[in-house]
From TrEMBL:
It holds the Pfam family Glyco_tranf_2_3. The keyword Coiled coil does not apply. This is Glycosyltransferase family 2 protein. Keywords: Membrane, Transferase, Transmembrane, Transmembrane helix. GO terms for molecular function: transferase activity. The chain crosses the membrane at residues 6-30, 304-326, 332-354, 366-384. It comes from Qipengyuania atrilutea. PANTHER family: SLR5056 PROTEIN, UNDECAPRENYL-PHOSPHATE 4-DEOXY-4-FORMAMIDO-L-ARABINOSE TRANSFERASE-RELATED.
Length: 406
């Protein structure tokens, strides 16, 4: 076998395995979960909102939550806003709207992880009888409903394990095509693949907002970190302790998508953080899972090896083109044929996910822009090689005229 043929087989084998696992996750996730009826507990829930310079949104967020809380029964719900390194009126507005507020100032230790640790320490200072049964983390620009809060509270209180709500962006087929495609990619990742991953391995990652924990787990969780993807890191730390994050599909958290001009910076933070974590943690997690016979760790490690959707198809297209050239030179066509078949299966699974879940998120006309979306993201992926974004930053909110302060 020539060197070129060997490399063609190697590329087809590696990418083929990744494509096959991606397809498996999507196919296993096409079936929607059946809602289960659970007895409601009169539990004490605290919704923690980490907020950095959120004066433009925090009043509406807390106000919407207050209306939601007042609309039914199912225990007590307290809103705790952690005003984290704020230079605006976030704390005053949140307090005036009815939230409990604690302020934190530390310019060296910035990020959601540190804010959550501060909120936990604030709660831990209360008497034992006043400690919450369940903690729900909600971003300052997100919306949810009473049913979702109560569902999460009941789940974590009953099972005494972490749960993650479905985290989606507000779907509008009137949005620019690039925004629609980005929203659909998030739906595939946070709903369809999350369902599939839970069915394969029994647990999923955390998504940063809509995370719910029983107090005893939250009290000991490794929160104080400035990692740009602190949610993924926390899920992996919990997995190392044998704790699985379960999907609460019927609990929903919705947020507005970033404006087109801000979407690149937001995606850079998310995807650079994911890829950096995957490079350092995927193979050790896989090896640990195989060594200990842990289906959860094996599936989660394999999940980390699947790059973001646009990058996966970009890499696959480039690899297929290279393998076709190798076929012309060496007459070894099987690697290209196998890779083409697996790419076709992966694309077909995404189309099935669109038919099943995504037609209200992504219009048929916008699908035609998918190749342009992949090309638009090339600078983001080149930026990962040149200068990874490792610091936490906040995406500009709707209605803000200037970028958020650091």
């Amino acid at each position: 076998m020539t060197t070129l043929a060997f490399l063609a087989w190697l590329v087809a084998g590696v990418l083929g395995a990744i494509l096959a696992y991606f397809t498996l996750e999507v196919l296993f996730g096409l079936k929607r979960s059946t809602p289960t009826v659970r007895r409601q507990h009169e539990c004490c829930i605290v919704v923690i909102i980490p907020a950095h310079n959120e004066a433009s949104t925090i009043g509406a967020t807390v106000g919407a939550l207050q209306q939601t809380i007042a609309s039914g029964s199912g225990g007590t719900v307290e809103i705790l806003v952690v005003a984290d390194n704020c230079s605006d009126e976030t704390a005053a507005i949140a307090s005036a709207t009815g939230a409990t507020v604690t302020q934190r100032s530390d310019k060296e230790k910035r990020g959601k992880g540190y804010a959550l640790a501060h909120g936990r320490d604030f709660l831990a200072g209360r008497a034992a009888s006043e400690l919450p049964d369940a903690i729900i983390v909600l971003d300052a620009d997100c919306r949810t409903d009473r049913e979702s809060i109560v569902e999460l509270g009941n789940l974590v209180t009953t099972a005494q394990q972490p749960y993650q709500a479905s985290n989606l962006l507000l779907a509008r087929t009137s949005a620019p095509p690039m925004v629609q495609i980005s929203n659909f990619a998030m739906l595939v990742k946070n709903v369809v693949r999350a369902r599939g991953l839970e069915r394969i391995g029994g647990g999923i990652p955390l998504f940063g907002t809509g995370m719910a924990f029983p107090w005893k787990i939250f009290a000991d969780a490794p929160l104080a970190t400035g990692d740009a993807v602190e949610d993924m890191r926390l899920a992996l730390e919990l997995a190392e302790k044998g704790l699985r994050v379960r999907l609460a599909e019927n609990a929903r958290v919705i947020s507005e998508p970033a404006a087109l001009e801000d979407m690149s910076a937001q995606r850079s933070r998310w995807e650079h953080g994911f890829m950096r974590t995957a490079l350092s943690r995927a193979f050790p997690l896989l090896a640990n899972g195989i060594g200990n016979g842990s289906r959860h760790k094996i599936a989660l490690g394999a999940h980390l090896l699947v790059p973001p959707l646009a990058l996966l198809f970009l890499m696959s297209g480039v690899a297929l083109g290279a393998n076709v050239l190798v076929g012309f030179v060496t007459a070894v066509w099987m690697p290209a044929i196998i890779l083409a078949a697996l790419i076709t299966l992966a694309i077909s699974s995404v189309i099935a996910a669109w038919v099943r879940e995504g037609r209200e998120t992504l219009s048929a006309q916008a699908i035609l822009r998918a190749p342009l979306y992949i090309l638009w993201k090339i600078p983001l992926y080149l930026g990962f090689v040149r200068s990874q974004q490792t610091d936490w930053n906040r995406t500009r909110r709707s209605g803000e005229d200037t970028p958020p302060s650091p």
